[in-house]
Amino acid sequence: MPGDLRWKLAGLAAAAALLPVVPGRVDDVAHVLVEIVCVALAWRRLVPRRDLLRRGWGVALVAVTMLCVADAAAVAERSMLLGTSFPRPSDLVALAACLVLSAGVFVVGRQRAGLESGNGVIESVVLGLGSLAPALSFLILPRLTEPGRTAAGSVVLGGFAVAVVLLVSVVARFALIDHRGCVSLRLFAGGLLLWCAAEFAESAASGTVSTIGASVWLIGLVLVTAGLCHSSLRELTYGAGLQSLHVVPSRQVWLLGLGSLMPVVSLGLAWALGRPTWLPEIAVLGVLVSGLVWFRFTQLMTHIAEQSDLLSDLARSDELTGLPNRRSWNHEVSRAVVLAQTSGTPLCVALLDLDHFKTFNDTQGHPAGDRLLREVSASWSALLRDGEVLARYGGEEFAMALPGLGLDEALERVDEIRRAVVLPQTASAGVAAWVPGTDPAVTLKDADGALYLAKRSGRNMTLPAEPSTDSTPGPLRDLSTVMQPIVRVSDLEIVAFESLSRFPHTASVEATFLDAHDKGYGDLLEAIALRRAVEEPARPRGVHVFVNVSERAMRSDRFWDALPEDLTGAVIELSEVRDGLATTELREYLDRFRAKGARIGLDDVGTLSADFARIVALRPDIAKIDRSLVTRCDLDRAQAEVLRMLVGFAHSHDVAVCVEGVETAGELEVIRSLDVGYAQGYLLGRPGPGWPGGRDRVERRGEVSSAGRHAAV
């Protein structure tokens, strides 16, 4: 709102407040002048904003003008000594103005994002009906029962009752989605409250109090005018951000609570003031309000129950395929073990894996890979018998429980399922029989070993688990690493590498590590991956290697015992996946890495709102920004601005920045413009065995330094 307009409105409010001390008929003239100026300011401010006029505020502005005309007419009627008959022409204009104002605000709400689908109607109606209680007790019913009341007067009073309900209801709906405390909405609400207070003052007494009521009414008009003129009117009309699309649950409860309390408060206030309580009428209104509140709470509880069921289903099922997820699998296989143990029937477990899925993903793209997973899941699910369980275990790997079948029967059954894969895709499978009294995780491990064997034997087959003299879990045995270059953005020289783990049987590396932790050897697997990367003899001198480490591994003494004493040249990338460590505990673990000569990095920064706090609390040497913020940043200004803010925040805390997932020249140009130190991605170098690019392309001058943004990796 312009400063001169703010001062004008403040002056009008002051003039309205001084109205009771103005002598004689001058107060009537001042009253009308304040109204004229308010209306003129509102029209002058809103007319250029034609989009707001079309959204309903034009109707509301006409209504405010009509209210001022009605009030000015009432002043003229008093001056002309037309008596106190009801209804007078000013009353009819005022009633029409209230109805038009309700219609205008309703039109705004009907088009407002978040309200267009009818959200909050019952809550706002409850508050509107509740507000009718004091209006009936102090304004409408006393006049309705006056001697000589005409039918026309009764109709007009009934119209005012309807107008109160409508006006309060349509304004209250905006409060449900007002996340930011919109100034215009607050001004409108304040103006309406003052108008109601003025009407109560008029009904309570005359003379000086009546003049005070007129003053209060004018101050309310100034507030409404300020609401129409304020710049936040656009926010109230269109919303501001994604939050404004959703109803605030606490506001729903507040509106329902206030609406249900107002009939009771009205009765108590009338009794305290010695006024008629109108108990039967207010009681009927209270019952109506209570019925609506009960109905709405029933709706809300039903909705909560449905959402709870939906969330429960989502927690138990895989989002992509709709199959039970890993958590559900653990529950189902435990139930199957209990059933097999109590009934004495056999139980077999199988693991199925799509062959060459990573190659398919790389050549056909991830959407095609997702589509294949859905088709395979649907094909296999259609063949399931009663009692059989098929779950997505991770990536392209599926787990299956076969109760009541021995190993030979289960082998035939799983092979039948496996061959039903969508052609030309093939799959491999391993089957193991559960031994009574053993942990089902051991059976799953045996099935995993059979799956490994099927993969090594040429794929596209189903093999049974066989006793093995090698008790080493497959991932510990088969772990290999590839290196992806990290370049300095200023000259695109390779200054470091990230060590990435690979396994021959699956492309889902993360799922393999999670599975290893579940089976009790994840700490050893992470220690081996770190040791192998650091002790690689072919690593060029002075070149750092980035390695991911999880909080879960840090908790293990066995993990620390397996690490080399000297980690110079290693950059420990702390995974974004939390495992319940307090910040102080986590800092102690990171200091243990630093004591061994390692640097600290934060991986996948920007995916969680807590990342800013983690940068401050953990004091990393480098923050790696997640690929999701980098992809298409050259085509999305908002995304580029988020990147700029994140990079600036890191730099302000002396933290170097490396961005991940740079795949296009446009993305690289954006990264360069943001003063980012380092980058990696397919555009700059793909993962490969050994040290891609050779020593000759490696910049040897710098090394990661705790000096932050000005240091070289």
From TrEMBL:
It comes from Nocardioides mangrovicus. NCBIfam families: GGDEF. InterPro entries: Cyclic-di-GMP_PDE-like (IPR050706), EAL_dom (IPR001633), EAL_sf (IPR035919), GGDEF_dom (IPR000160), Nucleotide_cyclase (IPR029787), Rev_trsase/Diguanyl_cyclase (IPR043128). Keywords: Membrane, Transmembrane, Transmembrane helix. The keyword Isomerase does not apply. Residues 345-467 form the GGDEF domain. It holds the Pfam family EAL. It comes from the Bacteria. Residues 693-713 are annotated as: Disordered. The keyword Transmembrane applies. Residues 694-703 have a biased composition (Basic and acidic residues). Residues 462-701 form the EAL domain. One of its GO terms (molecular function) is cyclic-guanylate-specific phosphodiesterase activity. This is EAL domain-containing protein. The chain crosses the membrane at residues 59-76, 92-109, 121-141, 153-176, 183-200, 212-233, 253-272.
